[in-house]
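Appendix C reproduces, verbatim, an entry submitted by the partner laboratory led by Prof. M.T., so that reviewers can inspect both the input and the predicted structure.
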Amino acid sequence: MEKTLNKDTKEQNQETEENSAEEEVSLDIEENDSIEEPEEISQEEIIKDLEDQLLRAKAEVQNVRRIAAQEVTKARLFGVESLAKDFLSVADNLERAIQSCEDTEVKEGLELTLKSLENSLKTANIEPINIEDMIFDPEKHEAISVIEDDSVEANTIIDFVQKGYTILDRTLRPAKVVVCSDCS
């Protein structure tokens, strides 16, 4: 009987081994089905892709350099705005001193000082806003008062209260003006 049991056990063990071998084969087949073979990429395609990446990288570097140069230029040109505004108040004070001064020698000295300051401002590309243009421009002028007058067209500047200045066509300080409005 023992022989029969051993024989039965051996047969069962063989069946179990065969079943596990079949399962392993079926697992291997399933795994191979889910893995796709990578497409063969030709060397020409790889070269074209790398050339494209290089070209894009070069363009990006050029853009970064251009933007950096523009930022440096803007910083140089417009970085002195606060200092320039302080100098404009000095020019305003000199103009008021000239108007109120009665002594001709002192007045002459103040005028020379003002002229020197204006020349220095011009070399820094800071120029006064044209006062001959009598049409109100909100980008260049600040209306501090509005007067109704039928004899003058609307939006015409009647009086300049304070000079305005530009730095490279950008308004540094708007001119303070009195403007005529339309009565109707």
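Residues 81-181 form a domain with the Nucleotide Exchange Factor Grpe; Chain A, domain 2 fold (CATH 2.30.22.10). Additional entries are available on request from the coordinating office.
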